[in-house]
Amino acid sequence: MGDNVDLERRAIDALRRYREAFARVEEMEQEEAAARRALADWQGRAKIAILDGVASPQRSHLIQSGQAIIARLQEVRLAMSEATAALDVAYRTLAALDEELGYIPIPEPAKPDAASAATRPEE
Predict the structure, then answer these.
(1) What is 2-104's CATH topology?
(2) What is the pLDDT of residues 32-79, one digit of tens each?
(3) Which terminus of the chain, N or C, has less C-beta within 10 A?
């Protein structure tokens, strides 16, 4: 019986880590989408600048901002890769515990403490 209790605790912890990793991947997906939009906007501005023959100082600023946008996209992609790897590890751990237990225990919802319950408005 003690083995199952320990496995259940480990499975609940693995489920928590999986949820956190999943949320991180979703966050990175949103950041990647924003970085891609910024790059697309920059490309549009660059095309207009080339067609309009923008002066050298403005062109230099445009190039610098493009480099910063590309660097940000690379940072986000690296973070996305790391988050995806963490999600994969969390999934594999959870799957192994599911296989060993035969089920995934559902944690009980956290009970509100008395202090936070006293400050909540009545529903």
Answers:
(1) Helix Hairpins (1.10.287)
(2) 999 999 999 999 988 888 888 877 788 888 899 999 999 999 999 999
(3) C
- Residues 97 and 7: beta-carbon distance below 8 Å: yes
- CA nearest neighbour of 1 among 96, 101, 104: 101
Structural tokens at position 60: 């230099």
Separation between Cα atoms, residue 54 and residue 52, nearest integer Å? 6
Q: First CA to last CA across the chain, in angstroms?
A: 41
22 φ/ψ angles, rounded to the nearest 5 degrees: -65, -45
Q: At what angle do helices 2-52 and 56-101 cross, to 10 degrees?
A: 160
Alpha helix (H) residue ranges in 53-109:
56-101
Alpha-carbon gap, residue 22 to 110, rounded angstroms: 20
The structure tokens 């996305």 sit at 80
Q: What pTM was estimated for this model as a whole?
A: 0.76
With b meaning 16 or more CB within 10 Å and e meaning fewer, what string describes 82-120? ebeebbeebeebbeebeeeeeebbeeeeeeeeeeeeeee
